[in-house]
Design a protein that fits this description.
With 197 residues, this protein is mainly alpha-helical. The chain is 73% helix and 4% strand. The chain has nine helices and two strands. Helix 5 runs antiparallel to helix 6, helix 5 packs across helix 8 and helix 6 runs antiparallel to helix 8.
Length: 197
């Protein structure tokens, strides 16, 4: 978790370079559409009410709630059954471990929401739309976004191709919904960042 959190923090930091790259691209290709938000706007995007209270965030919140309900219903383990939590090479009490894991999860979600949406919906989607048209651009960027999740097989303790394929399908569908929302908003990505986070 420490490594993942550090990598996510680094990813957010590198967004400053991505923002500069898009500005340079706009100078060379004036008709490309993208959200020209600056780094500070990117960092606060998932917390702005105008981004949170949107239909796309509502859809993703409902999907997350459904997923939690299904996984809770199908699980024999609940937080009440947990006594200790693994932390590096030792076990710590759940009173300390659960807040730690919760904080890390929130940090990873925040970093994934900002960096992945910027890269896929604010860099690749506009470039693909410009080159292939909006329908194909949306489809190609969504499939690429989903397909990259196959890399999770490389870091899994026990790789499960079937489960990862389901994740790829879900990520592709989610990428399609987020990308379509970005296109409809004239390439404003704030609500997509909030939904992803």
């Amino acid at each position: 978790y420490m490594l993942v959190t550090g990598l996510q923090a680094y990813s957010v930091y590198t967004m400053d370079n991505a923002i500069d790259a898009m500005s340079n691209m706009k100078a060379k290709v004036p008709n490309i559409k993208y959200d020209s938000m600056n780094f500070n706007q990117l960092l606060i995007a998932p917390f702005r009410p105008k981004n949170i209270f949107t239909p796309i965030v509502g859809i993703f919140t409902a999907l997350a709630g459904a997923q939690l309900a299904i996984s809770y219903h199908n699980s024999d383990v609940t937080i009440a059954n947990v006594d200790k939590v693994g932390f590096f090479d030792k076990l710590i009490s759940k009173n300390v471990g659960v807040p730690y894991y919760s904080g890390v999860s929130l940090g990873v979600s925040y970093a994934a929401g900002t960096t992945e949406e910027y890269l896929f919906r604010n860099m690749l989607l506009p470039a693909f739309d410009l080159g292939y048209g909006q329908k194909k651009g949306l489809l190609y960027s969504s499939l690429l976004f989903g397909g990259i999740h196959y890399l999770n097989l490389l870091v899994a303790d026990k790789p499960n191709f079937g489960a990862t394929t389901l994740q790829v399908i879900a990520a592709s569908a989610g990428g399609y919904l987020l990308g379509r929302d970005v296109q409809k908003r004239d390439y404003k990505i704030g609500p997509a960042i909030a939904a992803h986070t």
